[in-house]
UniProtKB/TrEMBL annotation:
This is Glycosyltransferase family 2 protein. Pfam families: Glycos_transf_2 (PF00535). It comes from the Bacteria. It comes from Geomobilimonas luticola. InterPro entries: Glyco_trans_2-like, Glycosyltransferase_2, Nucleotide-diphossugar_trans. CDD domains: DPM_DPG-synthase_like. Residues 4-166 form the Glycosyltransferase 2-like domain.
Amino acid sequence: MKLSVVIPVYNEKDTICRLLDEVRSVPIAKEIILVDDCSNDGTREILTGLADDTTRVVLHERNMGKGAALRSGFRRATGDIVIIQDADLEYDPREYPKLIQPILDGKADVVYGSRFVTGEYRRVLFFWHMVGNKFLTFLSNMLTNLNLTDMETGYKVFRRQVLERITIEEDRFGFEPEITAKIARQKLRIYEVGISYSGRTYREGKKIGWKDGISALRCILKYNLLR
C-alpha cells in the first residue's frame, strides 16, 4: 500500500518546512505532492529546493485556489490511497494511520477527519466559525442524506479509484461541498474519524473568511440540486 499526500500551498513560508518534516516522519510508504498556488511570500523559492525521490513540486503560474491546487495534485497521484494535507500545521500528520485504517480494513472508500467528534485536543477559537461550519454541514447533510459532523474538514482521504471517477470543478474552497455531493451521489462507503485540530487565527495566517462561507452555500445548492 502506498499513500499519496497532496499538499496545496499558498504563502506558507513559516510552516512548510516543518510540515514537510512531519509528513516525511510518518512511518508509511508514501509520495508527497506539493502544489504551490503561485505564492508570493518566498514559499515558492523554498519549495523548489524540497523535491526528491519521494517529493514532487508542482508550480502554478497564477493563483487559482485550493480546489485548483488539489486538482493538479490528484492528477499526479499514484498511491492506492490519497489524503489531503493543508500546509499550515492545523492538522497533525501523525494521525494518518487512524485516518487510513477504515480503508485498509476494507470498510471505507472515503474517510473524513472530524474536528467535532473527537476525544483529541483542539484549539478553542472562533464561535461563529463553528456555527458556520455546523450550518453548512447540516445543509449539506439534508441534501446528500449523509450524517457527517464536519463536511468542511481539511482531512479527507480517498481510495484513488474514487477520485479518478470525479471531476473537480471548483477552484477555491467550494471544493469541500462539491466533493461531498459527488461522493454521496456515488453511494460510496464513507467513514468519519475523530482528529485533533490546532486552528490558526487570522493574524497567524488563516485565510478562509465569510465570503468563502457564501461560496460554500452556493456550492451546496449547485452540486446537490442543479446536477
